[in-house]
Amino acid sequence: MASNNDNSSNKNPKKANLLDHHSIKHILDEYVSEIVTSRGYVEDVRMSNVRLLMGSIIIIIALVAQFYPKKFPENRDFLIVCILLYPFCCYILFNGLLQLIIYTKEKNAILFTHPPEGFFNSTGLVVSSKLPRFSDLYTLSIASADPKSKAAKDPVEFTKSVTQWFTTDGILVEGLFWKDVEGLINDYAREPKKNK
Question: Three-class SS of residue 139?
């Protein structure tokens, strides 16, 4: 597996602008997603599908208003309804729902997963990350997607400086980062110690 990782890093090194913390966080988050999915966890895309459905409804309202079969003077009342419906329905209601989903469910999550195939005593994962502005400390945490489940495990996290994972040219040293993330996944997957 290490040789496969080395081959991919030689072919397409991941490079970040070291002066832009969003660029650094984006590269690290993408690579975390690759590592977690390579471990057998399948991404759970239900939240993305909900957001796409809400966006599709907004687009359908706009298309109906644009391509209504009557010409302007006859469809004036219909256009007024669409114009009034669009800001309320699309902006206030749907943006409010999106903000509620982000605030309550997603938070800092970069990846939601289903349990690995064949594991019946496991839940999916919620992988979250933080890289505060003007800080080099990257925090990665792994928690259960269903914290109320009996199979849920205690969340684990690490906080490390991003300077140990990037060269001075901004290229991600994938092997070091892979090892740290894989260690965190192993810590999460480890069975909890039973009290005697």
Answer: strand
Distance CA 162, CA 18 (A): 10
Sign of the CA dihedral with 47 first, then 51, 57, and 59 last = negative
Q: 5-14, 52-61, 162-171 — which one is most confidently predicted on average?
A: 162-171
What's the predicted TM-score (pTM) here? Answer: 0.73
Per-state percent for the chain, helix, strand, coil, to nearest 5? 50, 15, 35
Please tell me the distance from the alpha carbon of residue 68 to that of residue 63, in angstroms, as a whole number.
8
Do the Cβ atoms of 174 and 5 come closer than 8 Å?
A: yes
Contacts for 136-140: CB closer than 8 Å, 24+ residues apart: 136/161, 136/162, 136/163, 137/161, 137/162, 138/24, 138/25, 138/28, 138/162, 140/28, 140/32, 140/181, 140/184
The three-point CA angle 112-114-119 to 5° equals 145
Between CA 113 and CA 116, with CA 115 as vertex, the angle to 5 degrees is 110
Instruction: Summarize pLDDT for 67-97 with one digit per residue, the tens.
Output: 777 777 777 787 777 777 777 766 777 778 7
Angle between helices 174-189 and 2-11 (to 10 degrees): 140
